[in-house]
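Tokens in:
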């Protein structure tokens, strides 16, 4: 039984929970590295973060024999990282500014628990020099670089000047702070369009906009400064030349306090949406050995220039001719660090802890290998059909990670029953696969995505699977513009060719017949069935989209022969109707489908090739009668504006009686610290406004009506 004790420092209640033993959790990793807890480091470390990265740090601490303290907001009181840690401290309510960014509360937690060091993870306070200073003032070790490096590299303007001085290739641009929108326009005109407007502090794709003309520069300045202030508490911006159609390749560095610096090869991070990474891999197909070495050496030069110590990442943009330019340095553990761990065999969290304690690096540059290939897919609670991923919230009603597959690692901070809410990043997990070759790692990623069960929230697995199987990605023909180039009209899900369509229809029909026969056998159902028990052949209709397909299906044991659309499909399987996974052999090829729902009426939702398809299996008579039913009239969306995601209304730009033009901004919704401008799709007069700035709205909520 967990022991509780409560203390009330000043005017704040801090609750400390101590766990006698770690409960089981949904965070399981299979990684090629091992940790040898032979060196004395710290007795107790506090992790100033949440979710998967907090769990990731706790796991290495346990291997090293280090006690751990978790901090959490009140809504995270039952989170996985809280259960994993030896102690847990509530540091405030849900908003990050009152909890995970609340330095006073976190300092109180350190004092209460006697933690000797703090690992900040990524985001939140991980690159906050003031937090590092406060820790140093009370004799607590910050597991990261010193404050000078944080400040120098955390400010994009200063870091660019330092990079130039260190003879690191840099992007042409304005080396000062842009103060107003009109200043931004003048600077952009001098540099030449297109330009990148981005926050001087922070990273993670927040506070970044590409502008191709003066109007987009003004708009980009406004949104970037607002996002920067919201995410980092610093609204300063800089402008530089936008390198069109580049690759985003970064170098992992590792440096100790004795002047030793290593580069741990590169990570390819070009698959992005809204300047945020989606799929990463190590190494990169694009780099040759010489370019890799020069990039690594320049990354080391920059780290030495700021006397860097800890794990850090130097990001570059690389053009089609392999010219590379310094983008920024992240003075923290990077989200995508697992792929580097897979190919080098190093535990980067362990290395950070060793370095923070003052140990020298155990490796030399010639000891750093590239063993095999690793790919990471960021699994988000997002709707990929909306701008490649707008946040989704909800409770995970069913959750099953594909850890039974070999060479699969899942870094997550959630479990079945966890809530995904509007307060934090919508990441569910980082899914990593490893292989001797890239083709092997990709094949394992495809299997892992097909075997990943997530229910209760909309997720981006359909998009991830399409990316890693797309011919351009498979061949390595990628850039940061991959998604808009491949899906210029937006992501629509898996496109079914004739063979795949027949496979889906046959699988749905076979599943329906199996379910009907099982219902008859177990329940003795007397209702009229589309699949009577006293026969082995049936004539059915399957509705997919707007089309109705005639089907003839016959059964022999666990196999079905299905005739559909002029072809024949054989479907075999164990038909475990209780399992969310549906492993089938279709015309001799193994496929993993998922059945999300099935009804006796014939409505079935199947996940096939990563995409959800809604089908309806009907008897011939039912299909004929159904054709007489009136069609539901679709809502006229041109005259209304609904919220495409849950979030907070930041700005309302119109009022009743205003006339808006096609494309004019109506309001701004902020979700997970990203601001989204919603615009009119036609010229019209505003009839009514149903929300105000500061209000929270849900997906589909009515915001504005037009006449």
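Residues out:
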């Amino acid at each position: 039984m967990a022991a509780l004790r409560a203390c009330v420092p000043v005017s704040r209640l801090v609750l400390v929970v101590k766990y006698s033993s770690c409960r089981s959790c949904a965070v399981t990793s299979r990684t090629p590295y091992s940790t040898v807890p032979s060196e004395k480091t710290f007795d107790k470390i506090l992790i100033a973060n949440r979710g998967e990265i907090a769990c990731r740090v706790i796991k290495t601490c346990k291997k090293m024999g280090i006690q751990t303290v978790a901090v959490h907001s009140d809504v995270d009181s039952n989170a996985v990282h809280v259960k994993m840690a030896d102690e847990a401290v509530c540091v405030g309510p849900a908003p990050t500014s009152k909890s995970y960014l609340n330095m006073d509360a976190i300092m109180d937690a350190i004092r209460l628990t006697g933690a000797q060091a703090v690992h900040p993870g990524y985001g939140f306070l991980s690159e906050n020099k003031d937090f590092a200073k406060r820790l140093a003032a009370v004799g607590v070790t910050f597991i990261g670089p010193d404050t000078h490096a944080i400040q120098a590299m955390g400010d994009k303007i200063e870091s660019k000047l330092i990079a130039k001085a260190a003879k690191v290739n840099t992007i042409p641009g304005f080396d000062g702070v842009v103060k107003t929108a009109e200043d931004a326009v003048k600077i952009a005109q001098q540099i030449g369009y297109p330009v990148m407007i981005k926050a001087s502090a922070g990273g993670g794709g927040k506070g970044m906009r590409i502008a191709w003309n003066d109007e987009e520069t003004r708009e980009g300045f406004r949104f970037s400064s607002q996002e920067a202030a919201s995410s980092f508490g610093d609204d300063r911006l800089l402008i530089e030349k936008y390198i069109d159609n580049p690759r985003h390749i970064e170098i992992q560095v590792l440096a100790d306090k004795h002047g030793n610096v290593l580069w741990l090869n590169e990570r390819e991070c070009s698959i992005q949406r809204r300047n945020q990474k989606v799929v990463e891999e190590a190494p990169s197909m694009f780099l040759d050995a010489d370019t890799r070495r020069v990039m690594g050496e320049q990354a080391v030069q920059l780290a030495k220039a700021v006397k860097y110590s800890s794990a850090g990442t130097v990001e570059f943009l690389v053009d089609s001719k392999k010219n590379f330019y310094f983008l920024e340095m992240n003075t923290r553990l990077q989200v995508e660090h697992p792929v580097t761990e897979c190919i080098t065999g190093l535990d980067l969290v362990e290395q950070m802890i060793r370095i923070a304690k003052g140990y020298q690096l155990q490796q030399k540059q010639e000891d750093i290998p590239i063993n095999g290939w690793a790919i990471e897919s960021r699994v988000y609670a997002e709707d990929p059909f909306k701008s490649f991923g707008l946040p989704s919230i909800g409770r995970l009603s069913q959750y099953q990670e594909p850890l039974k597959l070999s060479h699969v690692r899942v870094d997550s901070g959630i479990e079945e029953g966890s809530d995904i809410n509007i307060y934090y990043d919508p990441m569910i997990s980082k899914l990593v696969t490893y292989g001797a070759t890239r083709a092997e790692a990709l094949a394992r990623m495809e299997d892992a995505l097909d075997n990943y069960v997530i229910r209760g929230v909309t997720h981006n697995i359909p998009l991830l699977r399409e990316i890693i199987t797309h011919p351009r990605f498979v061949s390595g023909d990628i850039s940061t513009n991959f998604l808009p180039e491949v899906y210029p009209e937006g992501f629509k899900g898996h496109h079914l060719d004739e063979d795949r369509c027949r496979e889906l229809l046959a699988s749905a029909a076979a599943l329906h017949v199996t379910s009907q026969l099982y219902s008859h056998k177990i329940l003795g159902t007397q209702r009229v069935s589309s699949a009577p028990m006293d026969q082995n052949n049936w004539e059915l209709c399957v509705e997919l989209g707007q089309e109705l397909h005639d089907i003839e299906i016959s059964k022999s044991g666990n196999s079905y022969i299905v005739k559909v659309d002029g072809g024949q499909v054989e479907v075999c399987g164990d038909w475990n109707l209780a399992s969310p996974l549906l492993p089938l052999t279709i015309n001799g090829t193994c496929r993993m489908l998922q059945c999300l729902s099935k009804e006796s009426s014939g409505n079935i939702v199947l996940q096939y090739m990563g995409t959800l398809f809604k089908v309806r299996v009907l008897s011939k008579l039912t299909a004929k009668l159904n054709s007489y039913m009136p069609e539901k009239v679709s809502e006229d969306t041109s005259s209304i504006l609904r919220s495409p995601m849950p979030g907070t209304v930041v700005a309302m730009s119109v009022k009743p009686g205003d006339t808006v033009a096609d494309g004019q901004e109506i309001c701004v919704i902020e979700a997970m610290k990203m601001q989204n401008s919603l615009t009119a799709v036609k010229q019209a007069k505003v009839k009514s406004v149903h929300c105000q700035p500061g209000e929270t709205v849900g997906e589909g909520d009515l915001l504005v009506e037009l006449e």
